[in-house]
Structure formats: structure tokens, C-alpha cells
Amino acid sequence: MANDKSVSNHIHCQNCGINQLCLPYTLDDSSLTKLDSIIERKRPYQRGDVLFRAGDPLISLYAVRSGCLKSYMLNDSGEMQITAFHLPGDLIGFSSIAENSYQGYTEALETSMVCEIPYDNLESLSGQLPTLRRQILRLMSDEINTDKRMLSLVTSRSAEERLATFLIELSARFRKRGLSSREFRLSMTRAEIGNYLGLTVETVSRLLGKFQKESLIKVDGRFVSLLNVDAISSIAGILPIPCQQQA
Amino acid sequence: MANDKSVSNHIHCQNCGINQLCLPYTLDDSSLTKLDSIIERKRPYQRGDVLFRAGDPLISLYAVRSGCLKSYMLNDSGEMQITAFHLPGDLIGFSSIAENSYQGYTEALETSMVCEIPYDNLESLSGQLPTLRRQILRLMSDEINTDKRMLSLVTSRSAEERLATFLIELSARFRKRGLSSREFRLSMTRAEIGNYLGLTVETVSRLLGKFQKESLIKVDGRFVSLLNVDAISSIAGILPIPCQQQA
DNA sequence: CGTGCAATTGACGTGGCTCAAGTGGTGTGG
DNA sequence: CCACACCACTTGAGCCACGTCAATTGCACG
């Protein structure tokens, strides 16, 4: 409990299985060593543990090594709005740079390992390493893109389309990480999925049931198998016959 | 029509009225001169003119000098989803860095002047100028933040709350630019507002009428006056008594 | 003066929310 | 080992905010 110093000194970016999804991508050995030297690795976070809260001064960005976390904001009425689920390789905290303080909360959904990257060190290191600088920009740009696509999803698509998109994108993220894209375990509750997609728990539950009845997926609690990826994709808006309706 | 070379050589970042909202913020004179030297300024864009299209290779970021523009994406069915309205000082194109190609469309809503900032030049210049580098990160971080707040707005707030928030935020952006925050002209149509907020034209029109009937605003075509900013803010969710409901 | 788009307004339909009840799994304490 | 509490999840019934469809008006432009 009191032990808060770095553990697992044998873990380094150099031998991290997901480094090509993370900051190290494209870095040469010497740059990688420099980056590795500023990163701190701590004990795992347990379900419900909070990495940071809105208003806390920005100290570090976080890179997910293992597990799953959620980021959320609280509005003026204290209601939670989940803005992202984080998987291994994801970087957390970009939204906090502008104000130099965290703009929301990040919390572990299950036992998770994260790397802490002191922001000031990263900032000055990026001055020396052009590839690191470019990778930071790439990752931030990517987050902007993801947010815009998410915006498009929730402003104009039906509940069914949103959930199908959620499943397909989660599946794709697992594949990128070398995990099964056809069968996986949801780290988040139905309520959290609903909150993220702008739906209620009941709607999420009903739709998962519907998808199962239509043999698109198989659901067993938190475990999901995608039985008909093409059909789910087509519901998600990657339509097979998109321009059939005509003048 | 064919004249595509830089005009208005007398315009420089140094004497630009909105430079403290834009990239130059915090730059010293010598850095400012360097930045200014890589920026190109072209003829104004007219309503409907497109700056870039999804898929075009990323050449430049754009800074708005005057006017108003919209950014949008097209989904697989070809439907437009507006992701941002841009006012003077805004930077456009951050979402395109990751893939090195534009990820959506940007189009002028009215006659607009923009500064074109060749991305490769900006990238290498940012290696020499730490303040410029930090400002880019700040602006990108800010955009991520704005998108997350927008996400929160459309996933969980009612039509009335969304429109009120839209009016309040637009008002705040005008104030920042030294314009009236109480009376302004909308550059976008009702349909564009609705598209942005995830509502239909009809709903936007009805709500503007309702707000007017309640003496919160006065509407005359594209001209809007905010008569009761506090009341609109409170509808927007900046509630006067946010924690009154208790256990 | 006619054409066309933006905006308004009304009538109507419905997707997804709300409320409510019930089930199942899991951890805890007796 | 069981009893109980708690939480995640499911399922049904009813309702309402907002979308859809349609008609009308107003304004700008050629």
C-alpha cells in the first residue's frame, strides 16, 4: 500500500510487446533508451482506482501496458460522460496539455498496468528527438480524428448502428493488439457502453439480445463472439448497397 | 480565377489583429518573423469554396484570418456530418496529420481569408522553436478538449440544452475576438446548426422560436440578440442551483 | 416576375427513454 | 454452508421528445 516507487525494473520500452502502437513507434535505439529513461512504471491499478481527477495539475501522460481503463467527464449536474475506453498502447492525457491540468477523470475498469510519462520531461525530450515529436503529433491527431468520427456516430446514427460500430471498432482494436477479434471479453458494463454511446442500459441490453437472436453475435455475460462480422459491419454503416435509394 | 499566387504582402503575423488567438501566441519577434516567412496568404475564399477534400494529401494547415468556415465528414452513405465551425484565429487540419492526408472537408460559409501554413515547414520550424512547438500542442490539446465536450453534449443533453449551449459558446467565441457577444450574425443555416448538434432543421427552428417567445433571444433571420444570457446559460447546463437535488 | 433555397409551422409517427419488476451471479458474514 | 445484500443484467409496458412529412411563406437573385 505504501510502496509507491517504481517496480519491475526489467520492463523497458525496448522489450514491450506493444511498443509499435505506442510512443516508441519509429524511434531508433538511442532515442528509445532516452525515452525509456524518463518513464516510470508503478504497481498495477485495480478496478475502480483513479489515475487522476479533473483539476489535478498535469504531471504525467499515461501509456496503457495492460488492462482497460475509462476516461470520463462530470457535467455540472455531476453526471458521468465516458469519453474513451483505453486499451494497451493507448496514450492518456492529451486533452490536459492546453490547461496544464487534467480535464477529466481516468479510472481502471480492471487490473491494469500503466507507464507514467512525466510531461515536462517528454516535452523537452521531444525537442531533441524529431521522430518522437512527430509520433506525439500523430497520436494527438489520431485522437482528434477518433473523436470526430465518434461525434458523427452519436449525432446521426441509430442505436443499432452505434452498437454495431462499437463492436466492430473494439474488434479491430483487439486485432491490432494481436488478440482475437472474433471473441473477446468486455471490460465495461452494459451501462458504461450505453453511457459512451449515448444510450441507456436497457437499449444496449435489448440490442445485444436482438443481435444474438439474429445470429450476428453470441453473448454470454461479458463474453462476446462475433458470428457474422460482415452483417454487423453493414449495420454499422459500412453498407453493402449504400447508394441503392435513388431519385 | 487563374491567379493563384500570394497576394497582400503587407499582411504579416506581426500586425495581425488575432495573432494572440493563433499560432504566434507567446512567440518572440525573431521566432514570429520565421513563422511569418513560411506562411502563404491567398485570395479570399467565397461561400461554397472548398479548401480541401477528404483524401487529398496534407499540404498545409490553415489559419482563419476572417470569415467563417465549416469542416465536415461524409459517411459511407454520403451524408454530411459537420464537425466544426471555424472563426478567425482557429487552426484547421490537425486531424489530418496522423494519416498525412485530409480526413474531411473544409468549406467557406462566407467570404473568408485564410493563411496557408505548409505543414512540412511548420514541422521542421517547430524543431527549432520550443515556444512554437508548445503552442501547437496547446492548440491540438484544446481541440481534443472541445471535441470531448461536444461529445458529452450530444450524447446526453436535450435539444434545448444543445441549442442553448451552442448559442452561449458562439457568444463566448465572438467575445474572445473582440466582437459583440450579445448580438451577432449566424454564418450558418439552421440546417447546418442542426446537423452540427444532431438535430433537424425543424427542431432548431422551433426552439429558436420558443427561446424568442420566452424573451431569451431575439431572432431576425441570421441575426441573433441574446436578451437573457443567464437564463440561456442555465438551460445550457451551467445551472444556477446545480446541486439542489439531494439524497 | 419567376425560380429556388432557407425558414417556419402543423400534424403525425416512432425510436428509444422511463419506470418497474424479476433473475442471476458474487461476496460477506453468521 | 447457507442467508442475505448488492449489483449487473434482462424484459415488459407505456410514453414522449424529437424526427418525418407536407404545406406555406419569405427572401435573394437573375
Explain the overall architecture.
Chain A is built from 7 helices and 11 strands. In chain A, strand 4 (69-74) and strand 5 (80-86) form a beta hairpin. Chain A has 2 domains: 2-142, Jelly Rolls (Sandwich), CATH 2.60.120.10; 157-236, Orthogonal Bundle (Arc Repressor Mutant, subunit A). In chain A, helix 2 (119-128) packs across helix 3 (130-156) and helix 4 (159-176) packs across helix 7 (229-236). In chain A, the strands form 3 sheets. In chain A, strands 1-8-3-6 form a 4-stranded antiparallel sheet. Chain A is α+β, with helices and mostly antiparallel strands and 247 residues long. Chain A is globular. Chains A and B meet through helix 2, helix 3 and helix 5 of A and helix 2, helix 3 and helix 5 of B. The structure holds a DNA duplex (30 and 30 nucleotides).
Roughly how many Å apart are the termini of chain A?
67 Å
Proportion of residues in extended strands of chain A = 15-25%
Oligomer: homodimer
CATH fold-type name of the largest domain in chain A: Jelly Rolls
Please give the radius of gyration of chain A in angstroms: 19 Å
Largest sheet of chain A: 4 strands, antiparallel
SSE pattern of chain A: HEEEEEEEEHHHEHHEEH
Helix content of chain A: 25-40%
CATH class of the largest domain in chain A, named Mainly Beta
CATH architecture tag of the largest domain in chain A: Sandwich
